[in-house]
Specification:
The complex is a heterodimer of chains A (about 60) and B (about 280). With about 60 residues, chain A is an all-beta fold. Chain A is globular and about 30 Å long. Chain A is built from no helices and four strands. By secondary structure, chain B is an alpha+beta fold. Helix content of chain B is about 35%, strand content about 25%. Chain B contains nine helices and 13 strands. In chain B, the strands form three sheets. In chain B, strands 11-10-9-12-13 form a five-stranded antiparallel sheet, with helices on both faces. In chain B, strands 2-1-3-4 form a four-stranded parallel sheet, with helices on both faces. The mean pLDDT of chain B is about 95. Classes of the chains: A mainly beta (about 60), B alpha+beta (about 280). At the A-B interface, loops of A face loops of B. Chain B: Keywords: ATP-binding, Ligase, Metal-binding, Nucleotide-binding.
């Protein structure tokens, strides 16, 4: 059995914060979107089914 | 068919616009999220294409990935050398110094009291910033000895040993804005970033404005980008109240989501054209 990465914080076909339904097959992994229900910044972390997680805080070495 | 590999951390507005611009040019794009890439450290050709557009937001990931992919035969835009140099402001200043590019004076130091003494010798105000950092984070102006002592103590008593280096730079009294010139082999446009605060990053609230880049600024930015070996760069210029223009920083992963509607510089299209242009 393959051990799965913990995904408790991810929502399937919906916002993990407010459960607002988000559907579609046009998303790409890594895409960032804003939830229309609660304005949370979400990141697409999986496709089929669509899994969304709260976008991570800015990492220290991120930038231009 | 033309093909570009695009490495990213997040598909932000910038990456989506570049992707669209590449596809409009009948260029196939293979997307690679940086967190998914696990690459062997050898010289075997990588299965991707010959040109990689590096859009990772992470300095750690982008410089290592660029270095690995170059050994594996890819032409990476920007190169590992450019990313490493631009990602470290001390190395950037050294590269500029080596080519005689005008910039504010700066020094690096490795011990608290020695740095405070050097600041005292040079006079206030000065600016200190992390050697590695972006978006104007932890950039501080030092107006007197107390602030110098406090900030140098923080620099050397917090963080890890690899962060225990102080970069201190001349404070430039700007006329309420700084300038950014985009370079892709040649200068292609620019923005003026206006702020009442002395920190003029758009990530920190500065307002972008259109700016017609004069030939002298274009030439200076092109020299700066060449000094760090960058194919694609955003060169930040500081204009003194006397009209002198100095290179402040060089950015290797150009962001434009906050500014493109004001500047009208078609950066996604220009980046796509540049990347396609380096295909063999």
């Amino acid at each position: 059995m393959q051990l799965q990465k913990p995904m408790d914080a991810a929502g399937v076909n919906g916002c993990p914060t407010c459960a607002f339904e988000i559907l579609g097959d046009h998303f790409m992994e890594g895409e960032v979107l804003t939830c229309e229900g609660c304005s949370a910044e979400l990141e697409v972390v999986g496709l089929k089914p669509l899994r969304l997680a709260e976008a991570p805080e800015v990492e220290e070495d991120w930038g231009e | 068919m033309k093909k570009i590999d695009l490495v990213y951390t997040r598909l932000r507005t910038e990456e989506r616009m570049i992707l669209e611009a590449l596809r409009k040019r009948d260029c196939a794009v293979e997307l690679h999220q940086d967190s998914d890439l696990v690459l062997s450290l050898d010289a075997e050709r990588w299965p991707g294409g010959s040109v990689v557009l590096m859009r990772s937001m992470s300095l750690t990931r982008s410089r290592y990935l660029a270095a690995i992919l170059e050994v594996k035969g890819a032409r990476v835009v920007n190169s590992a050398r450019a990313i490493t140099t631009c990602g470290d402001k001390i190395l950037t200043n050294l590269a500029l110094a080596a080519r005689g590019v005008p910039m504010p004076w700066s020094f690096a130091g490795f011990e608290e009291e020695a740095c405070v003494a050097e600041i005292e010798r040079r006079g206030y105000p000065v600016v200190t910033k992390p050697a590695v950092g972006s978006w104007g984070r932890m950039v501080a102006r030092i107006d007197g000895r107390s602030a110098a002592e406090g900030l140098m103590q923080m620099r050397f008593e917090t963080g890890s040993a690899s962060e225990h280096v102080a970069l201190v730079q001349q404070y430039i009294d700007k006329p309420g804005y700084d300038l950014r010139v985009y370079v892709m082999g040649r200068a292609v446009g620019g923005i003026r970033r206006r702020s009442e605060h002395w920190v003029t990053n758009t990530a920190r609230g500065a307002v972008p404005e259109a700016y017609e880049v004069p030939a002298s600024h274009a030439k200076l930015a092109e020299r700066a980008a060449a000094a760090v070996g960058a194919d694609i760069a955003a060169v930040d210029l500081l204009e003194t109240r006397d009209g002198e223009v100095l290179v402040n920083e060089i950015n290797h992963c150009v962001e434009f989501a906050r500014s493109i509607e004001f500047t009208r510089v078609p950066l996604p299209e220009l980046i796509a054209d540049y990347a396609i242009g380096v295909l063999p």
